Amino acid sequence: AQTVTQSQPEMSVQEAETVTLSCTYDTSESDYYLFWYKQPPSRQMILVIRQEAYKQQNATENRFSVNFQKAAKSFSLKISDSQLGDAAMYFCAYRSTFTNAGKSTFGDGTTLTVKP
Amino acid sequence: DAMVIQNPRYQVTQFGKPVTLSCSQTLNHNVMYWYQQKSSQAPKLLFHYYDKDFNNEADTPDNFQSRRPNTSFCFLDIRSPGLGDAAMYLCATSGLTLNTEAFFGQGTRLTVV
């Protein structure tokens, strides 16, 4: 079974600065998908960015980018020019290409605080 | 614009009194999931439907049941809620293409008194 580990329960960043959230995972599969989700307080969880394991190029979405190291099984999220609206809990998720209906395994989350 | 809608947002139920949480979607997704999330922890998958096929997680208590009468709706039934069942319950959907993300509802916060 796959496991996802987020070693930083809490992180804080100054507004306009850059922060990196770490995520590692364990799998024996060669093809899979990785996601970062954002869950603001009292709001629904939404996708931030996704990475397909067979793609070497790191995914980027505006201020959000990932550092995907397949051999190291590492998938960190970098948030540039942090904004107050980035404050949320961030979950890293692994999605197998083999399991039924592509179930996702989530890490325990990192709570990000943005200081004005 | 809401694509995955959960009702109610907040539910208070008495210890042992059956309760039903509902989820509807406008995305026409084949897969629907129910997650339990406690106190800023990772969402824990309870079960999911692949179309009409029900898939229970091995460690989901028998106290939890689900129904999916059609593509759009899915229900979570808790037959005899205990204090330990107080949590946020998240409904999510996804399409069949594996690189697509899950779309979540806003959740129902269940309180057991």
How would the blueprint of this fold be written?
The complex is a heterodimer of chains A (116) and B (113).
Chain A (H helix, E strand, L loop, with lengths): L2 E3 L4 E5 L4 E3 L2 E3 L5 E8 L6 E7 L7 E2 L2 E6 L4 E6 L8 E9 L7 E3 L3 E6 L1
Parallel strand pairs in A: 2-12
Antiparallel strand pairs in A: 1-4, 3-9, 5-6, 5-10, 7-8, 8-9, 10-11, 10-12
Chain B lengths: L3 E4 L2 E4 L5 E7 L5 E7 L6 E7 L2 E4 L7 E4 L5 E6 L8 E8 L8 E2 L3 E5 L1
Parallel strand pairs in B: 2-11
Antiparallel strand pairs in B: 1-3, 3-8, 4-5, 4-9, 5-6, 7-8, 9-10, 9-11
Describe this structure in words.
The complex is a heterodimer of chains A (116) and B (113). Chain A is an all-beta fold. Chain A is 0% helix and 53% strand. In chain A, strand 8 (64-69) and strand 9 (74-79) form a beta hairpin. Chain B has 113 residues and is an all-beta fold. The mean pLDDT of chain B is 92. The chains are: A mainly beta (116), B mainly beta (113). The A-B interface holds A 4, 33, 35, 37, 43-47, 50, 52, 89, 91, 95, 97, 100-104, 106-109, 111 and B 4, 30-31, 33, 40-43, 45, 48, 50, 55, 90, 92, 94, 98-99, 101-102, 104-107.
**Regions of chain A with pLDDT < 50 over 5+ consecutive residues?**
none
Oligomer: heterodimer
Helix content of chain B: under 10%
| Share in β-strands of chain B | over 45%
* Main β sheet profile of chain B: 7 strands, mixed
Structural class from helices and strands of chain B?
mainly beta
Rg over C-alpha atoms of chain B, rounded to the nearest angstrom: 13 Å
Q: How much β-strand is present in the residues of chain A? A: over 45%
Largest sheet of chain A: 6 strands, mixed
Q: Structural class from helices and strands of chain A?
A: mainly beta
**Radius of gyration of chain A, in angstroms, nearest whole number:** 14 Å
Q: What's the end-to-end separation of chain B, in Å?
A: 34 Å
Any low-confidence stretches of chain B, pLDDT <50, length ≥5?
none
Fraction in helix of chain A: under 10%
Average of pLDDT of chain B: 92
Helix segment tally of chain A:
0
